[in-house]
Every structure is written in C-alpha cells, then in structure tokens.
Predict the 3D structure of the following.
Amino acid sequence: MDSSGETMTQDYVMLNNRLIPRSEASISIDDTGFLYGFGAYDTILALNGRPLFMEDHVKRLNDSIIGLRVLKKGFETQEVFSQVVKLLAANRYKNARVRITVTKGELALAMIHMESPNMTYLITATPLPDDYYHQNIKPLRLLISQYIRNHPRAIPSSLKLTNLANHIFASMEAKEKNYDDGLMINYEGYLSEGSSFNIFFIKGAKVFTPRLDIGILPGITRSVLLKLFQDKGIPCEEGFYKPEDLYEADEAFATSSVRGIVPIVQVNDAMIKTGEQSERIQRYYHEHLKVQSKLP
C-alpha cells in the first residue's frame, strides 16, 4: 500500500526475455544505446489484449536491428507476439501502447560493427483508455520546422532508430512557438513527416502522401491505410510535395500506430478544415482495427 492506504498495482516489463517488475529493471551504464544512441525500437498498438499488425512491426524492427548489425537474423514474429501478450496479461492491460527497444548492449565502440550476442532487449507497455475508439483526440496545429529530416545517406530513413535528435528538436521548436508539433521537410525541400507521424492530405476526392524515397519512415498505419484505400476504391497518390501543397489542402491528417488518425487543422499560418472525407477514412480504419483485435 502507498501512504494513502490504497493498494498499488505492480507494473511489469520484459527485459532480456524475463518478465520482471519495472522497479527491478536496470540497464548497464555502458549500454551502447545509452552511450551512443545506437539502438532500434518499434511502437505497437494493442487492443483487447492483442498486439496488432505484428508481422509488419517485427519486420520493420528486424530491418532496423539487422541494419545496426545487432543480429544477422531477426526475431520470429510469433515469439515476439507471445512475449507481448504475456506482458499485457501480467499488467492486466486491455488496450496499451507497447514499445520494443533493442540495443547492442555492452560493447566497446571499436567493436560496434560486430554482431552483439549481449544485446539489450526490452518490452514495455503503457495502458490506453478502454474506450479507445471514442477518445477525444486533439487536432494538430503544426509548424514546418527549420530542422530537416535526416539525409538518407546520413542515417537510413527506413530504419526506426532510437537516435531521434532531429525529430525531438523539431517537436521542441514547435511547442516553444505554441504549436502542437513539428513537421519536417527533407534536404530538397519536400514534405517528409512529423516528429512521430506520417502525413496525408486531401484535395477534391483524392488523398496524397509523401513517397517513401523522399526519406521517411515506412509507417505501419500509413501502409495499412494505403491498402484500405485500394480496397475501398479511394484514389491515392504517393509523390513529392512542397509545404504549399499542404497549405492549400481541403483536409489533412496525421497517422501513427497508437494515435491512429489525427486531423491537422493548421500548418504554420494556414488553416485547414476538418471534413467528411477524413472522418470516413477514420471509420474505415476503426472497422479494420476491430477486425484485427478480435481474439481467436
């Protein structure tokens, strides 16, 4: 019990394949992730006790850890799925934000190019509201940041790495100027992505989103929506767009695994309306999530 006499629940994490209380979890001060920001992660939405789109998430995580030379071969999807389900059950979480983080563990910088059998492998979970589909999600007011998306020849944009310095700078800059978050362009001036989200905008009956080879992360929700657009007959184009294209949009929204679809109502000084098309896309997406989250 705490000082008020109320019973406190124990929060669990999965660290190096062991389910342990969060209060007992520790990582070495010599860990490469801590010392050099040299690690990978992935964030997963779990609904009804079931982590969603695990095959896609584990593939992206594997691409990242293989790219970092953590392992030559990545994780098996079913193994990770089972560990996440076990963690959710231990915490009694129905809906949750799940994060998997992998670093090379304790390894001298001179050995950083080598595979690391002593990797750090951490899975954590944070509870989400039971009524996930009816959350009051605040629309976004975004600032086009002075901080650009990493050049793809500096840090591979397809890898989801723990080194998020430029994303965090973009977000801090926006909040210091009373916006909700930052939106980055790439080194050529094209729209790329937000600090933690992909972007879509609508003109007429058509949806537009930046191409992957602009240098953006291949978002899982982005990928799911592109498939849904095909299934529903919604015209969509992946291309090269400037901020002016977004300023002139009829509607716009951001996507991420946990928040789902979030309306964008302002970019710099340009105001963007919310509308029926974005709401219809969100309904299609929620219907898809409900199917995916049904337990067998």
